[in-house]
Design goal:
about 350 residues, alpha+beta, 5-stranded antiparallel β-sheet, 6-stranded mixed β-sheet, 21 strands, Rossmann fold
Length: about 350
Amino acid sequence: MPAVDDARGSATPVLIQGISQTFGETRVLKALSLEIAAGETVALLGPSGCGKTTLLRLVAGLARPTGGRIDIGERRVVDADSGVFVPPEGREIGMVFQDYALWPHMSVAKNVAFPLEMRGLGRSEREARVTEALGLVGLDGMGERAPGTLSGGQQQRVALARAIVARPPVILFDEPLSNLDRELRESLVVDIAALLRRLGMTALYVTHDHGEAFAIADRVAILSRGDLLQVDAPEDLVARPGTVDVATFLKLGVILDGRVEEGDLVLGSKRRLRPPQGFLNGDRSGQLFLPRAALTPMAVADGGLAAVARHSAFRGDGYSVQLELEEGALLDLHSPRRVAQGEQVGLSVAWERARWFPHTSL
């Protein structure tokens, strides 16, 4: 469609520089910076209360920051130092909320047309754009329906159509799928990702769900306690977490405390492993990150890890086995066979996939 090509040409970058936000004595955002390229989708991923929605509200213009500045395209929309502040209606953004925010007394078409009415577009152009937007989100022919007669997934599609109908260069998502069941979330997030790429829109997507973030985003920004821990492509986050906190939050494997003694890595009080040369850096303590892909079950033997099976559950293509390592950590691994509770299991380590995070030298 021609409108899709037009939207692709208007993609706009977003630049967040040194943004901080304080409420009373609580510092919610800690002078963080993030650049979103034109046409890129970045997911803000983190636990509840980490500052995700606060940052989204600052980009949207729904709140003023304590410090820092934000540019949308070539335009500075907020600067805490100079006092510049462009209100939401002046920022040319679309928003999709968790609770849909649809007006129940309006038809689907009128809900979608509302942003166009606010811009003063004529009736014929409004109708054409609404029809196009509903088609893009898979709701052809539903314009005269009342929102209350639709399913939750359909209502969120209406909200998405309303967000894109004015062809904004930037679109913001605030936990848009958290009210839907998992199967519907997994389906709808794929559709949203495909639509954003088709339209070429720049997007900032807030979620606490790892799978959702990985499915939709070009890059994922891990936010914790008001600070960005790592910003990377999903596959790079999984393959190369930058910190123990990132690996722990993403539940990528197991983290074990250890210390280096004469080239050996000592875990707990007795388990000694000999990693390849260059894996460890000096005589120090630290934490060993072992992703699931680095561990292979084997017979219990020296040179590997020892574990005890605590639970085994059938998953269709094999078994999910919960193992308790000798060091006390729990780990879930896939197994082609059922492992009996209490069975001793050895684990070999693929060191090229593991990572050592040393503590500061004493």
